[in-house]
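In the laboratory, one determines a bound structure by crystallizing the protein with its ligand and collecting diffraction data. In a computational setting the workflow is compressed into a single prediction: the sequence and the ligand go in, and a structural description comes out. We illustrate the idea with S-adenosyl-L-homocysteine.
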Amino acid sequence: MARFFISNPIVSKQEIIVSGQEARHMRRVLRLKLGDKVDIFDGTGKEYRSEILRQGHQTLTLRILETTVPNRESPLTIIMGQSLVKGNKMDFIIQKATELGVSEVFPFVSSRSITCLDKERIEHRVNRWRRIAVESSKQCGRLIPLRIETVAKFDEVLERGSLATKKIILWEKGTRNLPSLFRERNATARLSESVYFLVGPEGGFSEEEIKRAEGTHFVPVSLGSRILRVETAGLSFVSILQYEWGDLR
Ligand code: SAH
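The predicted complex, in structure-token form:
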């Protein structure tokens, strides 16, 4: 069943009006006709099985057949502080983070970041990542698309985590390993808790950055003895977190 995202919460119990890009996609790309059925989600956790009732010049009117609240969002809130990376690698990271159930991505620039973009290009990139997050959410069945914050500096990204119950900075020289992290938490695990973790750029974090992070209660965690690429480090950590404390089981 084709899925579509409507960014404004659906208030009507009967009809949904679809316009803009989603309407164009329904008509021109998928060539949907009157009576065809689609699933609509609006970011509130609900899904609306609907059928196409009317076609206007630029809009489509759908009739809601059934409203459900499927259980596809992770009970564990994972926030990924992701340093900017070269080329289009971030596109891949955003897509996979969406599939794996990350709640939010905070992109940031740190002292060894190679990518330095001007304000306009940053805005352009963030919009592009947000579109990728919505497209990926449609494909993988998510009900609440992954959110993406604007790009921050390292110190700001440290502060953004103040509400998370567990704060981790992935560091190849970290003294804490995964078994010790999970041993400590599994004793008191409550799935409603949230994990905020940071992944460094290709050049890694500086020792000074690690110290500043530790000063704001981030725990440096190592993912073993090999150096992983940025995308491998973040996405494998998310998979492990989802297995231990989330819904990948
Ligand atoms: N500058 C380093 C590696 C950077 S790898 C070097 O070349 O030696 C990019 C990022 O991935 C790191 O900043 C870290 O956040 C994460 N990472 C890579 N390998 C890791 C490991 N074994 N343990 C923890 N984090 C790792």
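The chain has a mean pLDDT of 93. Keep in mind that any predicted model is a hypothesis to be tested, not a measurement.
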